[in-house]
Amino acid sequence: MEPAMIVLLGGVLPFGSIFIEMYFIFTSFWAYKIYYVYGFMLLVFLILMVVTVCVTIVAIYFLLNSEDYRWQWTSFWAGASCSFYVYLYCIYYFFFKTKMFGFFQTAFYFSYMGIFCVCLGILCGTFGYVGTSYFVRKIYSTVKID
Fold first, then answer.
1. Is 52 helix (H, G, I), strand (E, B) or coil?
2. pLDDT tens digits, residue range 82-94?
C-alpha cells in the first residue's frame, strides 16, 4: 500500500468511533445547550485513543510487509488524519445544523474548529506514533540475525 492511502484511510475508524459524540459536543458549544455526560465523553476519548493506536499499528504493519521502512511519519499522519474527517464534519455541521451567517460568525466558527482539529490531529498522531513505535520495537527485538 502507498503511504498516502494509508494516511487517508487511517482516520476513518477513529472518526467513526467519535462522530456521534461530536454532535452533542458541538451542540453544547455552538447551540448553547448544556452538556452533562462528561464521564461518557471520557470513555469516548479513551476509545478514540485505543482505536487510533490499533488502526495505526495495523496500517504500519501493512507498510512494513511491503518492505517500506519509512514508517515514522506515516504512523503520525495516519493517526492525525482523524482530524481531517472531524473538520469535514465541522463543515457539514456548520451548513446543516447551525443558523450562523455573516463573515464574523463564519470566521469565528471555522478558526476555532481549525484550531481544535489541529490540536486533535497532534494528539491522535502522537498516540499513533507512540503505539506504533512500541509495536515496531517489540517485533524487531525478536528477530535473530544469523
1. helix
2. 999 999 999 999 9
Residues 83 and 16 sit within 8 Å (Cβ to Cβ): no
Biggest CA–CA distance in the chain, Å, is 69
Q: How far apart are CA 89 and CA 30, in angstroms?
A: 14
Looking at the chain, list the stretches that DSSP marks H as alpha helix, in order from N- to C-terminal side: 3-10, 12-30, 38-65, 72-80, 82-96, 103-141
The SS3 call for residue 74 is helix
From the list 105, 140, 131, 144, the residue with the least C-alpha distance to 49 is 131
Cα distances from 134 to residues 59, 70, 74, 127, in angstroms, run: 14, 15, 15, 11
How far apart CA 81 and CA 110 sit, in angstroms, is 18
pLDDT per residue as tens digits for the range 117-130? 999 999 999 999 99
pTM for this model (two decimals): 0.89
AA letter at 81: S
* Residue at 59: amino acid letter: A
Distance CA 77, CA 75 (A): 6
